[in-house]
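hi! just following up on the protien thing from before. the input was this:
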Amino acid sequence: MTPRFATDIITFYHPDFWGLESADAVRDWASANPEGFWERVMDALAEAGVTGIELTFAPGDVDSALRAFGSAPAFRRALDARGLAVVSAFIAGSDCPDWRDAGNLPAIVADAERRAAFLADMGAELLVAGLPMRTTFGTRPPFFVDAAYMTRMADIAHVVGEAVARHGVKLAFHTESNSTLWYERDIDLFMALTDPRYVWLCPDSCHIALGGGDPVAVVRRHAQRIALAHWKDAVKPIDVHLTIDETVFARQQPYMTELGTGIVDWQGWADAMSRTPGAGTILIELDEAPDPVAALRAGTAVAREAGT
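and the predicted 3d structure came back as:
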């Protein structure tokens, strides 16, 4: 089976692509012009030869698509006309109720079910989530990612996973840098505590490498539970303790790079991924590419070569 290529909509968030001065300007313009935002993104995807998309935080989110097209079926028709399809939707931590607050469980489930219903209408079956972020190293009182914490996260994941499964959607967890699902040990512990019928994994090759881990080894260990993966390259492991606040995602950016220009073993990764349930989709993730069409073409070329 020849896999389809996909990308996260964050690939198209760079201001240069829109001729604007800042990320805030992109968000503001896209919020005011959702139809124009999606038309340009879809045209660029078709030009790059990438047919799958992962929705993410605004402006490339579920609500933006609904404002632009009026309904999930209308959005689906617009994608179909260009040979495109939604693969998955990513829940950013800032866009959902805090998993660390025990009282938020009903709201967490309701939010996930709303997204899952949209995905079902789109013919997609993957909802990608993450675990909460760590705190800055040295913060007092200290926050430990221990068995008790991970058991609480597993309990929530089970409830959410069961809820979205009723919509025909799988819940998969992304391995975000500086989150509580970052190090190889975090991933192994969370996978051990969760039911494979309801909880899946979405490993990110870059983020695992940024934590000093081996992305290929992670995929091989958890092959049967990988529903999707983010293919992204890393310059080197993050070698400092970053301040974990709203700026941490920008501070991680210098450690990331386009496919084939970093330290990820792409042949090993492609071989390991070919043995997973997620083998049918190669999702190239390029955070805010100035020229997303060229970057996606280069990334798909690296992935094709690795696969052969």
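The chain is about 45% helix and 10% strand.
Strands lie at 4-8, 52-55, 85-90, 126-129, 170-174, 200-202, 230-231, 233-234, 256-257, 281-284.
cheers
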